[in-house]
Specification:
37% helix; binds ligand C2E; single chain; binds calcium ion; alpha+beta; 722 residues; disordered C terminus
Length: 722
Amino acid sequence: MRHPVGRNDHTCSSELVESFEEAGLGWFWATDAQGRLTYLSEGACGQLECGAGPAVGQQLSEIFVVDPEFERSGSEAHHRTLAFLMSSRVSITQLAVKCASVTKEISWEITGRPTFDRGGRFIGYRGSASDVTDARAREREAQRLSQFDALTGLANRDRFYERLGVTLTSFRNFKRSCSLMVVGLHRFKQVNEALGHQAGDEVLKHVATRLKQAVGGAGEIARLGGDEFLVMLPDIDDRGRLGDLAEEIIQLVSQPYSIEGARAIINLSVGIATAPYDGVDRAELLKATNIAFNASKGARARYRFYSSELQDQVGQRRQIEEDLRDAIATGIGLAMHYQPIVDARTHQLKCLEALMRWDDPERGEISPGLFIPIAEETGLIRQIGTWALEEACRQAQQWPGDLRVAINVSAIQFMDGKFVDTVETALRKSGIAPARVELEITESVFMADQAYTQRIFKALKSLGVRLALDDFGTGYSSLSYLSKAPFDKIKIDQSFVRGATEPGNNNAAIISSVVSLALALNMETVAEGVETQDELELVTGKGASHIQGRLFSFAVSQQELLDKIASGDLVYEPEGPARQRADRRSEYRRVGLVHDDHRYIVVLRNLSKTGALIEGLLDVPVGTEVVLDLGDGQLAVATVQRSSEFRQGVEFETPLISDGADGLCTRYRVSPYLIEAAGRPLAALPDDPYAALTGQDAAKAKLMRPKFFREVDRDSRRTHAA
Ligand code: C2E
Ligand code: CA
Ligand code: CA
């Protein structure tokens, strides 16, 4: 018997469906005209019905929603709900949906088409489905891995750059600002080497956690691989707030880490730039932030804001490195100077700290605060450090036998395997008694492997030299170091001395506790950077045994010192102000002064948070309101408080804030959006934003007669008067 060709064998097709379903190749479903499920393969029911009622009878669109994360079947589909698609009676092809109700997320891909009866009436959907839950999870994980840093779980570079680009572009339209911070760990490589990579990874994880803690909801954080992190801070352009946040990050991250019984200490610094002030698009902003970060890597690393001045410093650093190589090779320009350290009670000279001076034939004096960090970064510190050690020992040998010399040792020198030999050679070559030599070491040497540090300490002690813990109180001080290492002396950092005399400051209490601990451990204490009478009174009152600072003397040349020694008088008189003045720094630079639509050039003579002294305008009446243009878009509204001839003291309406280094800056700057509104294309701040802002009024301003005479007009004033 032959089967009739083309006959639709019902039994045969349902068998096919069954075996298809059983093989797990897919499921089938059907709905009625209202979208209620009338059929669903058994396996599918089983998956859906854990907990929920029977699937058949429910609206398909109540069980599933379109999954926008994975929906790619049609450009429109993911904007639409499943109910909308089905009521429109369109065909559905591989639509990504997920189960909306069951606790465990279920992802399906469904395909279906509307069916009609002979009369053309819509009777529901017939379709197939497949379970893609596992595939989705894998896809999601792959996605996460490609966007996030596996170690810390923070966004990775790709994701962050993408987010930053999108944010900056959209913020531009709404005239919003966005700041960016680079947080960079210093010498992390050494932590890795000392503690091993696994421990290094642990430290990085902790760093990430602390960063998140400090940043909180204010921004997004990414790790750029290695030891650099980026923080995006939308809608923050107040540099006061940014500085506070940077401080907090530095504070938190630099606390010691304990990893597998070892301690690790991380030093870090932060570079900050703000869009659109320092850069409009992603590339510009990243560049500005990196320049600020490079500038933040000073000896006492903190944070830095981008400024156009720093841009020039990039080339300058390279030049310094080159010139320093020359200076080392030729020996020209490098010298050791010596700063007295006196007995706190008798003011008798006891010791001299050797401080390196570099007088470059072209550039003049370059501060060790600038070139020592460059020397450390480039490894040149080994050579100049050795030279400093030998030179200081040699010169100290010419002093009376009871005077000691204190020599600074960089952590990099200390880590160098040959350091003990270097010290031994310097002692031997100079012939100085080892007990007269003191090595000043900072806490950062404790970053290294404990066993190594202990071995070096022991070797140095057996040479007979003394050890001093330098800069105590900066960064990550821990009193526990003191009991572990054979120090003869602790140097209390000047940042602790400064401010200790202010009411409500707890530096004084910290000085007390350091001094009493030092006494208990039989160590001397030196208060560093004592500048005023009241600071001297305070630190002696707290029991410091020795004093160093400009109140007694700056560092002097060997010749000046030998002259002093020859005079036979080795007792120093404290000479200096009674107390610190309100943070006033002397300056000598030209700035703009705006008054009545006129922009004058004046000379800034000193600057404090609250005011400034300016020179160059004649007889400006007290009470006059002016705007000081401090450059880079920093306009400070000020009122003249004192005035005599060509000098005025002005007070700022809003106090300036720290720029993270030694300088001051304004909280806010002229917004590039404002310049844009004045008819220019949006760009980072130009060199002279004030001119850009008032460009259109320049012609008018020229017509008006300036109200104040300038110093350079002195002669024309005479003519006027005549
Ligand atoms: P430091 O070891 O903390 O040295 C003390 C610094 O404080 C010196 O700065 C000194 O001139 C300054 N100072 C002293 N008294 C006062 C004061 O009353 N007020 C203020 N504001 N400052 C005072 P200097 O000479 O600029 O050196 C800066 C840093 O450079 C030193 O800090 C030290 O870390 C490093 N350094 C200098 N010479 C050498 C060296 O030969 N080798 C190494 N490795 N580092 C050196
Ligand atoms: Ca020192
Ligand atoms: Ca010091």
